[in-house]
Amino acid sequence: MSWLGGHGDASSRRSGTLTVLDVGSNKVCCMVAKLKPCDDGKLLRGRSHRIQVIGIGHQKSQGVKSGVVVDLDRAEHAIRLSVDAAERMAGLTVDSLIVNMTAGRLKSEAFAATINLGGHEADEADIKRVLGAGAKQALKAEREVIHSLPVGFSLDAERGVRDPRGMVGDALGVDMHVLTGDAAPMRNLELSINRSHLSVERMVATPYASGLAALVDDELELGAACIDMGGGTTTISVFSEGKFVHGDAIAIGGNHVTLDMAKGLSTSLDAAERLKVMHGSALPGSADDRDLVSIQPIGDDGDVPLQIPRSVMTRIVRARIDETLELLRDRLNKSGYGNAVGKRVVLTGGASQLAGLPEAARRILGRNVRIGRPLGVAGLPEAAKGPAFSAAVGLLIYPQMASFESHPAKGISGLRMTGTGGKLHRMSQWLRDSF
Q1: What average pLDDT is seen over the chain?
Q2: Which phi and psi (to 5°) does residue 269 adopt?
Q3: What is the pLDDT of residue 404?
Q4: 350-382: per-residue pLDDT in tens?
Q5: Looking at residue 211, what is its pLDDT?
Q6: Residue 56 gets which letter from DSSP?
Q7: Could you give the CA distance from residue 111 to residue 147 in angstroms, rounded to a whole number?
Q8: Is residue 268 within 8 Å of 284, Cβ to Cβ?
Q9: Tens digits of per-residue pLDDT, 52-64?
Q10: Tell me, what's the pLDDT at 31?
């Protein structure tokens, strides 16, 4: 069943409320938004609805490390608090949400499938059949399919068909991008949400969500990479011709810079985090040897903090940032999509706000780099307009992009689709009918 129908005209698209949850290593953020159909004249490419955020709640994350839930009770507590705050602000109760997924060793693979059309017009059922054939190849033991997306269709020998509905041919082929993740981390994330009496409507890979929020239309079309640097993980996505073609994640993020500083300067994690935000930079400056920064050593109650030159700090930050960027560069080159990205890289996520990071990325990735903020959503408070909220905003944009996505029948972690007719069923129904 295609999750969302075609775009149709404005009258057939309906308004509704959507709730998303971003469970990160540093913060848990919940957003409730109203989606209203755009007037047909104002359709952004691929976007059928206007998004107005009516409730937002965010909390310091607990029980999550490198994107993986490591303590169910604490994770549940943080999720509950942020959802409560968003519900109160929006003035409604939430029962199911769209959630993002960073952990589980995300892996992108390409598959191709072909079915016989026998010379008639391709319709929804044929598309469903060919997508199903492509998705079947990806179901491996202990791995869950998070996304199976058509990158392009082909009719007979003609490649590059964007939407084959209504076209005539003998063979309908599809090239698919299938993104899988380990089952266990997905189940544990889902458990921590279920324990807060909420259900997971859909899981979306973090790199996909961040790219949808931070890349502009031309970048999506011409090809670009989006690097989302979070607290515990960094994800990378590649978009080409408007499609999400590759995703990857590494378990290194801004927290590792803080840890390195805490160890290298033997100070507490809180103090190291503050130093990183106030004085940290990935770029050596000319006055760094003369600038002194004061540090309170661990366990030392003395009133006299240590004075160290800023250059010591910059060296620690730079070593970790360079290593992370080199890792990303190698992953990008190995992915085979280095050419698709061309010269365009967008950095987003909370850790992308580190001073000097774009310059370091330009040097190591050898590409143009800009910092991306979440785009195209109204009603965000000033504090939530920064790059740290890209993944959450991307989850709000995602349902409008999912019209062709195919899902294996068993649903997320085999637990889904029970008790149809309940609240969850109503929300899925709205999502299916509205897009």
Answers
A1: 85
A2: -60, -40
A3: 61
A4: 999 999 999 999 999 999 999 999 988 889 999
A5: 95
A6: E
A7: 12
A8: no
A9: 999 999 999 999 9
A10: 95
CA 296 to chain CA centroid, Å, is 37
Structure tokens at 59: 């909390």
Domains of the chain, start order: 105-181 (3.30.1490.110), 215-370 (3.30.420.40)
Burial of 93 (C-beta count, 10 Å sphere; 0-12/13-18/19+):
exposed
Tokens 């360079």 belong to which residue? 322
What type of residue sits at position 167?
M
Q: Residue 114's beta-bridge partner residues?
A: 173
| pLDDT (average), residues 165-175 | 89
CB 13 within 8 A of CB 435: yes
| CA pair distance 205, 200, nearest whole angstrom | 14
Is residue 228 predicted with pLDDT exceeding 50?
yes
Owner of token pair 């010591």: 312
**How many residues belong to the chain?**
435
Residue 425 CA, distance from chain mean position: 25
Q: Tens of pLDDT along 402-429?
A: 666 655 433 333 333 333 334 555 556 6
- Give the containing element (helix H, strand E) for 153: strand 143-155
Distance of CA 58 to the CA centre of its chain: 17
Angstrom distance (rounded) from CA 180 to CA 143: 6
Residues 305 and 294 sit within 8 Å (Cβ to Cβ): yes
Q: Is 98 exposed, middle or buried (0-12, 13-18, 19+ CB in 10 A)?
A: buried
Mean pLDDT calculated for residue range 95-120: 89
Question: Could you tell me the sign of the dihedral formed by the alpha carbons of 402, 375, 364, 68, in that order?
Answer: negative
